[in-house]
Write a structure and sequence with these properties.
It is built from 3 helices and 6 strands. The chain has 136 residues and is of the alpha+beta class. The protein has 2 domains: 46 residues, no CATH class; 70 residues.
């Protein structure tokens, strides 16, 4: 038996199931990250993160937002807040990737899709779109 894309995906799903159980027992988030495979072996990245008292997983993007938001002209209180764009689409800010120059802000669209936004677009949504709409 060798590894192919389908077998690697199934293996990833099985490992994530086991890691979710272990993470819950330890009080942290554990999941499989990027991976590579050949016909004979598979190598995955393991991502471990703490969980805040409010239940938010401290992803690397979330941590980067907290430490680097001010550099991009963003405010710390915008993290986890929901904003409405000029077109009526709702976005929730989830983090920041400072290595991405054009679209460093990470967000989830109202339908749950992960998206990348420019810092300028986020500032415009806040400044021109009014106050953030806090989650209920």
């Amino acid at each position: 038996m060798g590894f192919d894309r389908e077998a690697t995906g199934e293996l990833r799903d099985e490992i994530n199931t086991v890691l979710a159980t272990l993470g819950a027992r330890l009080g942290i988030s554990l999941k499989v990250g990027r991976g590579t495979f050949t016909r004979d072996n598979v190598k995955f990245e393991l991502i471990a993160a703490t969980i805040t008292p409010s239940g938010e997983v401290q992803t690397p993007e979330r941590t980067q937002y907290i430490s680097s938001a001010i550099i991009h002209g963003l405010k710390l209180e915008w993290l986890d807040q929901t904003f409405t764009s000029h077109g009526g689409v709702k976005y929730t800010i989830t983090g920041l990737n400072p290595k991405s120059r054009s679209y460093p802000v990470r967000a989830k669209r109202g339908d749950g899709q992960a998206v990348k936004l420019s810092a300028l677009a986020v500032r415009q949504m806040v400044e021109w779109g009014g106050r953030p709409q806090y989650r209920e």
